[in-house]
């Protein structure tokens, strides 16, 4: 469905549990009998590098599909996400021949090795907000390690992942190594999570669904699980901040990708000394934000993903009004067609309000006042989530104090949403289990084996 209009743009075959069975069987054959895990690491590297080349050759088509599928701006798809997809695949191509074991000193006349081997068949479930990036973050490390993959796309956004998967096949990936199934969570997703033929799961999505994924994995074959889940990330503006710069960065932290970002800095904590100025300038910035067709030049914000998410966000907005927060900007749909929402800003919010506690996943900024460092640390950490945080300050001492005290997986200081393939990403608490990206992602797709042998001069040989 095109989120700009609500009209059907393509029909994709719905994968169900039987399709998952077939996909897992194909992946199992490819892993147990096929060439991929038996290739040299250098050969796997070359396939992934060819894939990155094809991504760049087809960048315009991929970006258009991502925007058409998801509603994010073409400027974001073409200028950031497609290049990041290619860079991430090159990063993991470079790791393919650098997965080394260890030699461990052993007591007595023995030689001990530690080997890192591919885990086998990896089941992966990606979300609708960043289909291309989540494809890269999951498929890249899994393939670099020599695994086979069954990937389930989000039912809202199957198009871009299906297309780039075809390019990976064109790059020389053997049959059965990557199997993409487009289906719904309760059917295809549940079948993948509970499948006895899957050796590893990786899921990105909501915390509630992540708990179900973990339970299904445990009830089946105790397959290990990596979870990248929800957040309610604090963005902290100290009293020494350049207010204009802080307003712009906080605006980006909230409204990037239509606010549909797990690490959205949606709790904006502002020191009382600069609070009033910050609030007024944040209101003005939100009212200037350009909302419209994501294919048009100059548009900053496209539509939300679908009607369900659109209505959910507006319910949160009403909750904010009902609970006594001050609605400064937005608060309603934008236009009369599609799933567009006005950039919305609340001030005078309290920590116990739903808009300050729960993940909205939309273009809604909630501004809260604080008076001291210890106070804001306590309040920022008083959340079930711990995915990310932002800190805006001129003080190195304040930056260091806050960075160490915040119970989150990523702290961005005087920046936000900086995603490099080598930087690990994941959360504390109910924001997830494990890490993606960097060398940490490789560990998700490797088994560790110890091999101990006697040395030749052992007395009994």
UniProtKB/TrEMBL annotation:
Gene Ontology biological process terms, A to Z: carboxylic acid metabolic process
Keyword Oxidoreductase: yes
UniProt GO molecular function: aldehyde dehydrogenase (NAD+) activity
One Pfam family linked to the record: Aldedh
CC per GO annotation: mitochondrion
Keyword Oxidoreductase: yes
Protein name: Aldehyde dehydrogenase domain-containing protein
PROSITE patterns: ALDEHYDE_DEHYDR_GLU
Residues of the active site: 228
PANTHER family per UniProt: ALDEHYDE DEHYDROGENASE-RELATED (PTHR11699)
Species of origin: Panicum hallii var. hallii
Keywords: NAD, Oxidoreductase
Residues of the Aldehyde dehydrogenase domain: 2-451
Similarity section: Belongs to the aldehyde dehydrogenase family.
């Amino acid at each position: 469905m095109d989120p700009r209009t609500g009209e059907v743009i393509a029909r994709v075959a719905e994968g169900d549990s039987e399709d998952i069975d077939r996909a897992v069987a194909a992946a199992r054959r490819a892993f147990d009998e096929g060439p991929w895990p038996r290739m040299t690491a250098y050969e796997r590297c070359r396939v992934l590098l060819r894939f990155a080349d094809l991504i760049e050759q087809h960048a315009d088509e991929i970006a258009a599909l991502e925007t058409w599928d998801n509603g994010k701006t073409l400027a974001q798809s073409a200028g950031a996400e497609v290049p990041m997809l290619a860079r991430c695949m090159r990063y993991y191509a470079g790791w393919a021949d650098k997965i080394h074991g260890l030699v461990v000193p052993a007591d007595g006349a023995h030689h001990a090795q530690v080997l890192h081997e591919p885990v086998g068949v990896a089941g992966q479930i990606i979300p609708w907000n960043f289909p291309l990036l989540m494809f890269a973050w999951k498929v890249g490390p899994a393939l670099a390690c020599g695994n086979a993959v069954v990937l389930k796309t989000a039912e809202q956004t199957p198009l871009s992942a299906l297309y780039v998967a075809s390019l990976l096949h064109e790059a020389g990936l053997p049959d059965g190594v990557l199997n993409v199934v487009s289906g719904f969570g309760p059917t295809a997703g549940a079948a993948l999570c509970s499948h006895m033929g899957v050796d590893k799961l990786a899921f990105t999505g909501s915390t509630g669904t992540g708990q179900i994924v973990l339970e299904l994995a445990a009830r089946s074959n105790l397959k290990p699980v990596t979870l990248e889940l929800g957040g309610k990330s604090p963005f902290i503006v100290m009293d020494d901040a350049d207010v204009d710069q802080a307003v712009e960065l906080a605006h980006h932290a909230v409204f990037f990708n239509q606010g549909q970002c797990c690490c959205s800095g949606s709790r904006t904590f502002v020191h009382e000394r600069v609070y009033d100025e910050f609030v007024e300038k944040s209101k003005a910035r939100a009212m200037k934000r350009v909302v419209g067709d994501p294919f048009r030049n100059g548009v900053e914000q496209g539509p939300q993903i679908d009607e369900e998410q659109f209505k959910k966000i507006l319910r949160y907005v009403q909750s904010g009004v009902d609970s006594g927060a001050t609605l400064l900007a937005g608060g309603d749909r934008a236009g009369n067609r599609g799933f567009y929402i006005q950039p919305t800003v609340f001030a005078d919010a309290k920590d116990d309000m739903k808009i300050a506690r729960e993940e909205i996943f939309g273009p809604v900024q909630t501004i809260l006042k604080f008076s001291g460092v210890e106070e804001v640390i306590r309040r920022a950490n008083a959340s079930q989530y711990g995915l990310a945080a932002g800190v805006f300050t001129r003080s190195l001492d304040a930056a260091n104090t806050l960075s160490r005290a915040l119970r989150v997986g990523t702290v961005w200081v005087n920046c936000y949403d900086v995603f490099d393939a080598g930087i690990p990403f994941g959360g504390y608490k109910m924001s997830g289990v494990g890490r993606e990206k960097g060398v940490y992602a490789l560990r998700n797709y490797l088994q560790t084996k110890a091999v101990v042998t006697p040395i030749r001069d052992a007395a009994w040989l």
